[in-house]
Amino acid sequence: MNTTPGSNEDENQPRENAIGRREFLIRAGAAGALITGSLVAGRKLWQPDHYLPGFEDQKGLQLPDFRFGANKLMPSMAIAHGPDHEKTVSAAIGALGGMSRFIQKGDVVMIKPNVAFDRPPALAATTHPDALRAVAKLVFAAGASKIIIADNPINSPTGCFLKSGLRQVADELGLDLLYPETNSFSPLQMDGEILKHWTFFHEPFKKATKVIGLAPCKDHNLCHASMTTKNWYGLLGGRRNQFHQHIHSIVSDFPMMMKPTLVILDGMNVLMKNGPTGGRLSDVKPMGTVVAGTDMVAVDSYGYSHLLERDIAELTYIHKAHDRGLGNKNWKEANYKEVQV
Amino acid sequence: MAFFKSPGGEKRGRNAFVRTKVPLAERVSAIVIVCLLACIGIAIAIKGRHFDPNLYSLRTDALESTTTAVEGKAGTLRAGTGVQPGEEGTTNTPKATLPPALPAVAKTSAGTSGEGGGDESSTPPAPATPATPAAAASTAQAAPMDINLPGIKPMGKTEFYNPDNLFEKIDGRAPAYLGFNFQSLRSRSFSVDGADGSYVDVYEYRMDTPINAFGMFALERDPAGKPIDFAPDGYSGELGYYFRQGAYYIQILASDQNPQTVAAAKAIAVDRAKSIPEDNAGLDGVRRLPVAGMVAGSVTFVPDNAQGQSFLKNVFQASYDYDGAKLSFFIMLATPQETAAAWKSYQTFAGKFGKEGDLPDVQGAKIFQAESFGKCKVIYQREGELGGVIDAKDAEKARKFVEEYLQGKIK
Amino acid sequence: MKLRTARRISQVFFFSLFLFFVFVSDLRYYKGYPISLFLELDPLVATATAITTHTIYKGLLWSLALLVPSILLGRIFCNWICPYGILHHFIGWLMGKGRAEDKVRIESNRYRSIYQTKYIILIGMIIAALFGSLQIGLLDPICLFHRSMTTAILPTLNLIFPSTFYVRQNFYVGGWVVGFFLFLLVGMNVVIPRFFCRVLCPLGAFLGSIAPAALWRIERNPTKCVDCDLCLKNCEGASDPHTQLRKSECFVCFNCIEDCPEDAISFKFMPPLQHEVTTPAVPARRALLGGMLGFAFFGFGRTSGAQDRDYDKKVIRPPGSVEEKDFLERCIKCDQCIRVCPTNVLQPAFLQAGLEGIWTPILNNKIGYCELNCTLCGDACPTGAIQRISIEEKTGVGKFAEQGPVRLGTAFYDHGRCLPWSMETPCVVCEEVCPVSPKAIFSREVTITKRDGTDITLRRPYVDPALCIGCGICEHECPVTDEAAIRVTAIGETRSRDRRLLMDGGVTNSVRELEQRKR
Questions:
Q1: Distance CA C447, CA B313 (A)
Q2: In this complex, which of C27, C31, C261 lies closest to B48 when CB atoms are compared?
Q3: Starting from the edge strand earliest in sequence, which strands make up the sheet with B313-322, in order?
Q4: Which residue in C49, C58, C62, C270 has the most chain A C-beta atoms within 10 A of its own C-beta, making it the best mutation to test that interface?
Q5: CA C117/CA A23 separation, integer angstroms
Q6: Which of B23, B88, B90 is nearest residue A5 as measured by Cβ atoms?
Q7: How far C314 CA lies from chain B's nearest CA (Å)?
Q8: Which of the four pLDDT bands, split at 50, 70 and 90, describes residue B140?
Q9: In this predicted structure, what is the pLDDT of residue B69?
Q10: A334 C-beta neighbours (distance < 10 Å), count
Q11: B327-365 core/surface letters (b: 16 or more CB in 10 A; e: else)
């Protein structure tokens, strides 16, 4: 198919100007392959309807239930009073039946401290390193293979863990400190009152078999108190500052979100006012009490009335959680034990 | 092109050589291509003419969803909780206070689910709340009122009102309705054939529960009304019919006493009563109250703290003419444990303020009698039912009334 | 008829078609014309968005209609169809060497190594696309031409002939940059004919990369050829037909066939390749450099934070836009949305949306506002950066009533500038024009004593953030026109999870809503 007017036949060069069959097949094949490839790609990738990318079929994760050691005969809540941090914590755990009631050999235990702010331990705005040390030692003694500590603080994570003294404890005892990194979050899915779909600090829980919440007892300007229930707020990611528009509802969602093995309320030094950040030693009052239990609602109930010394009727989230059946605010009805060190 | 001189000498020229021998294949291809271009042009012109006008303007059928008023902050039609964003609270508080004779009736549904305060949805509620019959009813009430009866024709459009604008229709009566958790009002007028200038007004007040509809109905009840047979609670007055069916309180009002108008009003009333499914949930207490000797229009309902007692809830009470005396008799229905406990509490309370003593059981019901401050009461309790005569001057008559009721002699 | 004649007819046809589409992108004439057809035909747009989004959006499938003939014939697009190429061809002939002596013209059409630049640019853009940053729109000829017409040429022409293209004069912020850029590129034809097409065009590079597979090619018969180089005189692509044809540069313009006095050149089916330079001549190291530059564009663009924490409050995207990161994967900066917007509110951004957002559309409520019952921008967008939502979905009625309307942002009062709030003067135009029902602006009455001692009852306006859709008509109509007393900013937009303001109708529910919005 050439466009020159028949002059080619005159020259003796049909061979040179014609291509071989092999070349013909290769080139035709290449063009054909390219065309077919484009058609197939077009067909496969075609999106005839519009859509919003990124949200389809995003199934969130659901946390497993970490509860363990339920026993009608043994107490479910223990209150220990004493002057020494470690001894009081041990006494509280001991009153529950010892850490071995909850932790078994080979467990990977995730301890969730409250390190929301970069405060020194004396200001009682964060979990006290002595409390973490005591709990970690008990957990290791019970046979756990690994302890992970993690939190997603409001202030910068590296600063918080360092200044609160928890990084030192982690280095000392060989705990796995996980920082909230970009890829540590996954979407959570649950049917809470406010919490339905939210990005969650999942990395520490991927391998965890038991979870212990270790919270200080603090006043909170908005929801009245930050204790073992509010402690779980630190696992939420994203723009969680919007939850303050419904703070009581979301705090009452936490006992649904997380079913820990154990919660410990460290009331050795209580932040009585200007919480949750505090800032003065005069805000802190030594109460010398540690409460441990399996029901965070009950533990918080004791904490609010006895450690923060306030009227439990104010604590809206606890009544919400109780009404939703997520815990019992009447801690006295639980099988509890009170000891003095 | 020959007009424009460009720099350069003789050797310029766009086409010094012009090809003349054009092979057939080339000619054909060229023409085919030009035809193809023409086809493309025509195709585009045709495409340009056909378009969906809905791309550029709002479809009017989509506007249907805006026929009902939207309440609440978020511009969506979710059935909200009664709690506004930012506020705390788990139960709705009553909106208006009523005269002490009939305290405000609070919602009986628990917690925050259910119809929001004043919210009216024509779309299904938010995921947390299962679709309730009330939601279906609200959808029905959002439709125009069509009554297909001979002899009447609609006069004007159907009017719709929600708790916020109810006062525009009924003015000062609105707070009372709101106190009974008024949900929506659908109202329309109908002209009567053959009676010029006559018309019938239909008012359908939808409350949230049959009990509240009953409460509102009872509040406005005319003691001189004549009973009717086509609705569980109702009466006819001089110019209309008033009754409760399901959770609705319906008023059919005739403009005059022209026989055609009155007949039309009756027909409409019967039709309306039939159009609403019967629902007497929570009104068992009323049914239990004996009818004999009851002073018409004296039934009242108190949800809690009746007679100032915390253990008296959902109490129905009526006045009776008995043996020449006026007696107040009440009934409370609950679980057997609750009534037993209530009875004991009542007895203890009565004992504190006056004389009190047991009376012999009648038909398995325990009775005690008490007297304080010149008034006496006879209270009985039997399986799930607590009741009795209160504030009676004549102790003997009070006792006899209770005994006869328990024996089934007073129905 | 000669093929060259057919080519000239085709050029006139497609150029006129392009101008027609540009002109008719006005609600007065809109009807059903496929005004974005050229963009949908553009195979680079389809390929690049397929790389970034892993899909081919709606009408972009049309590019196959162009891709298949290009695989068979070569870069016919560049001279037969591309309106920008046609513009350069014409301007080059008019202004440039098109009228010089033969010798000058022959020299200007030889291949130069600078022509490899477009391949390097293409590689850079493809690498950036692999990482999710779509930048082909900066130099793609169709996008560039549409953008230049919209933001520079048409408004300027409208100054001379008022109300030709718009009812009233339209303004486009920063249009001068686009306009001068166009002039520069077109002006370069004086230096090198078809400068843009040969040196810069990434679409040309793309087609040039697949041209080697073509089955029909220009073939020079070396026996007949007398090496007069006259074939170069009008060669558009500078593809060296006089020696070894560079198929990736050949525009299939047929000028060489017409010019050869010896009839030595023909357009043949599968001629032997030994007389050709088959593949584009791009040294590997330069290609690598291009790739790195593309990656750097993505990297440095993203790390500035303009798409993340440091987002500009004035980057308000058109209604129906997807989330910002997805937007940057789709927007080809063609500015079609800006062209069709009836209120002139859409403007090309410069650096407000970051480096990657140059010339992407944002709202400027001082100039216009987003009309409530209008979704023209979504209709015009060929790649789905602005989704083709219906008006019902935009306003949240009908079956979209439960999920609510699309919000662009939220309005905030500047009390110090507001007449009733600080100037003792009644106003509330904002409340009057607020288009939603119930209105997002409500007012409360207050009686104050003015400076002169008299009392005045004023209505002071408030915004209800749960109802505000961020349309901006309040800002537009506010009498304080230099800087309105109520201004819309991007927070509260429904398209973004991170930029919500309120909890209720806030993130938790809206993620559910957005999930339900799967269509």
A1: 48
A2: C31
A3: B300-304, B313-322, B325-333, B385-392, B375-382, B365-372, B355-362
A4: C270
A5: 31
A6: B23
A7: 24
A8: low
A9: 59
A10: 20
A11: bbbbbbbbeeeebbebbeebbebbeeeeebeebeebeeb
By Cβ distance, the residue of A48, A55, A242 closest to C514 is A55
C409 Cα to chain A: minimum distance (Å): 16
Region C205-219: what's the mean pLDDT? 91
A51 touches chain C (CB under 8 A): yes
Residue A327 contacts residue A127 (beta carbons within 8 Å): no
Q: Which helix (H) or strand (E) segment is C455 a member of?
A: strand C455-463
> Strands, DSSP E only, in chain A?
46-47, 77-81, 108-113, 146-150, 176-178, 185-189, 197-201, 210-220, 224-226, 262-271, 284-293, 336-340
Q: Please, how many CA atoms are within 13 Å of residue C234, restricted to the half-sphere of its CB?
A: 21
Give one DSSP letter per residue of A230-290, joined into a string. GGGGGGB-SSGGGGGGGHHHHHHHHHHH---SEEEEEEEEEE-SSTTT---GGGEEEEEEE
ipTM of the complex: 0.84
**What is the phi/psi pair of residue B80, to 5°?**
-80, 170
pLDDT value of residue C183: 95
Task: Give chain B positions within 8 Å (CB) of C33.
Answer: 44, 47-48
> CB-side exposure of B205: number of CA atoms within 13 Å?
29
Question: What kind of fold does domain B284-406 have according to CATH?
Answer: Protein Transport Mog1p; Chain A (3.40.1000)
Residue A25 falls within a domain, yes or no? Answer: no
Residue bearing the bigger pLDDT, B122 or A272 = A272
Cα–Cα dist B77/A236, whole Å: 29
| pLDDT above 50: residue A2 | no
Radius of gyration of chain C measured on its C-alpha atoms: 27
Nearest CA in chain C to B32: C6
**CB-based contact, A26 to chain C, within 8 Å:** no
- Examine residue A59 and state whether it is found in any structural domain, yes or no: no
The answer to whether C254 and B33 are in contact (CB under 8 A) is no
State how far the Cα of C39 lies from the Cα of C181, in Å rounded to an integer: 20
Q: What is the mean pLDDT of residues C16-26?
A: 93
| pLDDT tens for each residue of A51-73 | 544 334 457 788 899 998 888 88
Tokens of C198: 């040969």
Query: Chain C partners of B65 at a C-beta cutoff of 8 Å?
Result: 397-399, 401
- From C323's Cα to the closest Cα of chain A, the distance in A is 9
pTM: 0.66
Q: Confirm whether A248 is domain-assigned.
A: yes
Residue B292 has pLDDT above 80, yes or no: no
Domain residues of chain B, as ranges?
Answer: 95-275, 284-406
Quick check: is A125 in a domain? yes
| % residues pLDDT > 70 (chain A) | 92
Structure tokens at B270: 């019967």
Number of domains in chain A: 1
Do the chains contact at B26 and A323, CB–CB below 8 Å? no
Peptide bond before residue C283 is cis, with ω within 30 degrees of 0: no
pLDDT averaged over chain C? Answer: 89
B351-399 pLDDT tens trace: 877 788 888 888 888 888 888 777 888 888 888 888 888 888 888 888 8
Q: Which domain holds residue A161?
A: 77-340
Domains of chain C: 3-277 (no CATH), 324-406+491-516 (no CATH), 410-489 (3.30.70)
Under a CB-based contact definition with an 8 Å cutoff, are residues B286 and B333 in contact? Answer: no
Question: Looking at chain B, which subunits does it touch, using at least 3 CB pairs closer than 8 Å as the criterion?
Answer: A, C
Q: Copy the structure tokens of residue A96.
A: 């529950």
C-alpha torsion angle, residues C120, C126, C127, C133 (rounded to 10): 130
Report the C-alpha gap between C253 and C92 in whole angstroms. 15
Which chain C residue lies closest to B80 (C-alpha atoms)?
C504
CATH code assigned at A321:
3.40.50
Give just the sign of the alpha carbon dihedral C83, C89, C90, C95. positive
Separation of alpha carbons C314 and B159, rounded Å: 45
